[in-house]
Design brief:
Helix 6 packs parallel to helix 11. It is built from twelve helices and six strands. The strands form two sheets. The chain has a three-stranded antiparallel sheet with strand order 1-4-5. It is mainly α. 73% of the residues lie in helices and 7% in strands. It has two domains: 99 residues; 274 residues, no CATH class. This is MICOS complex subunit MIC60. Keywords: Coiled coil, Signal.
């Protein structure tokens, strides 16, 4: 468009120049004589100018045609550009719409991906929990199988041990009877050698009384302190037997020779007997007794220490009855260590070796009602003067008894005892038998 307008301007300028020259020539012709040469020159100039004008006109025509062509081409180009602009605007609109749709689609995809990611995380967490539970269940199953196999193996081993166990009722009975016999013999030897000695210091006698009272009960302590025993020391004999019997009963029933632990272990064992098979409970009892003693005493021989303790108890009885006897003299004069060894053997046999049965030595306690089915009355009055009494109680025990605990059926918790050897007991009828002597003494 700019090139066409410049061509028009040039054409108009050329035309104005030609008109000016023609007008100037006419004025010059009028104002001065025309010379031939000048006229010729003028004609040449005019011809040249005319030619130039014609050329200028042709050029103007060409320029006009070119201008028209340029205008037409410009219109075409403008139309094309307009169409292109419209196209690109349309494309831009479509692109913007596509971008918006793409953005919305991408946002929706991202939202779906976030949901899928959360679902995947949840699935991974659930899968992890499931794997953990599966591993735990697998471990529990393996542990159960292992425990079941171990239990089966141990039960079989226990059954084999039980079948081979030589600590039968008769074997234990033999040792209990031997121990009772040794206690009776020792007490009889000591009472036979009993002699009244010099008067003891009242403080010594009082201390002896308290210890005897604790060992054999208050009634027997009063008998020893009140009566004269030189002529017939049968009360001294009873007290000596009762003291030794009570002491060995504690040794046999203990778990590890610590008094505070015995009640705890015994309570646990009784509960196990109610709910577990006998072989399992007996095996636990055996191992607990064995290793608790091993841990505390590391194989040391306890015989001498226990023998000295028994000697002190017997010395207190003799002092209270009026004799002079030191623990050292008693320990050296009588076979107390033999008694202790038999008691320790029973503690081991009953507590550790006996797996197929559950045996227990026992004595009757002071003031227990006399039960002839499970106790045997000891006769000490030479003239049989103990008065009959339908309701009698135990004064003290002078010999050990033995009983076996067992279940009648495995599905029943209650335990039943069978007395294999009745403990010998002195009854409170002895008090009535001694009463006439008491009245005569007064």
């Amino acid at each position: 468009m700019s090139s066409a307008s410049s061509f028009v301007k040039i054409a108009w300028k050329v035309a104005l120049v030609l008109v000016a020259l023609r007008f100037a020539g006419a004025i010059a012709a009028r104002s001065s004589p025309i010379k031939f040469d000048a006229l010729l020159s003028q004609q040449k100039n005019q011809a040249r100018l005319k030619k130039e004008v014609e050329e200028a006109k042709a050029k103007v025509a060409r320029l006009a045609a070119q201008l028209a062509s340029e205008r037409s081409r410009g219109s075409e180009i403008a139309e094309i550009m307009r169409q292109e602009v419209a196209f690109w605007r349309q494309m831009e609109g479509l692109a913007r719409k596509g971008v918006v749709e793409n953005i919305e689609m991408m946002m929706e995809v991202e939202r779906q991906l976030a949901l899928q990611k959360k679902d995947t995380q949840d699935l991974h967490a659930r899968l992890h929990d499931t794997e953990i539970r599966a591993a735990q269940e697998s471990a529990l199953v393996q542990e159960h199988d292992s425990l079941q196999a171990s239990l089966t193996s141990r039960t079989s081993a226990l059954d084999d041990v039980s079948a081979q166990n030589a600590a039968s009722d008769d074997d234990v009975l033999h040792v209990v009877r031997a121990l009772n016999t040794k206690i009776v013999q020792t007490a009889r030897a000591m009472s036979s050698a009993f002699r009244i000695g010099d008067a003891q210091d009242p403080g010594v006698v009082t201390a002896a009384y308290e210890r005897v009272r604790e060992a054999v009960g208050p009634v027997m302590a009063d008998f020893l302190d009140f009566y004269e025993h030189q002529e017939d020391p049968f009360l001294v004999n009873i007290a000596l037997e009762a003291s030794m019997t009570g002491f060995v009963a504690e040794i046999i029933s203990t778990w590890d020779f610590r008094h505070q632990n015995t009640s705890v272990f015994t309570g646990i064992y009784k509960e196990m007997l109610k709910s577990e098979p006998l072989t399992i409970a007996a095996r636990w009892r055996s191992l607990t007794r064995r290793y608790s003693k091993q841990n505390l005493y590391t194989g040391r021989d306890l015989t001498s220490g226990f023998a000295h303790q028994v000697a002190e108890r017997l010395s207190n009885i003799l002092i209270l009855a009026g004799a002079n006897a030191t623990p050292q003299q008693i320990h050296e004069s009588y076979e107390l260590e033999t008694i202790i060894r038999l008691a320790l053997d029973l503690q081991r046999i009953i507590g550790e070796d006996a797996i197929s049965c559950n045996l227990e030595t026992f004595i009757a306690r002071a003031d227990d009602p006399f039960d002839p089915e499970h106790m045997e009355r000891a006769e000490y009055m030479s003239n049989g003067s103990e008065s009959p009494n339908p309701v009698t109680h135990v004064l003290c025990s002078t010999e050990l008894g033995l009983r076996r605990w067992e279940k009648l059926r495995e599905d029943v918790e209650e335990l039943q005892s069978t007395t294999l050897l009745k403990p010998h007991v002195v009854l409170d009828t002895l008090v009535d038998a001694l009463q006439p002597e008491d009245e005569e003494g007064h």
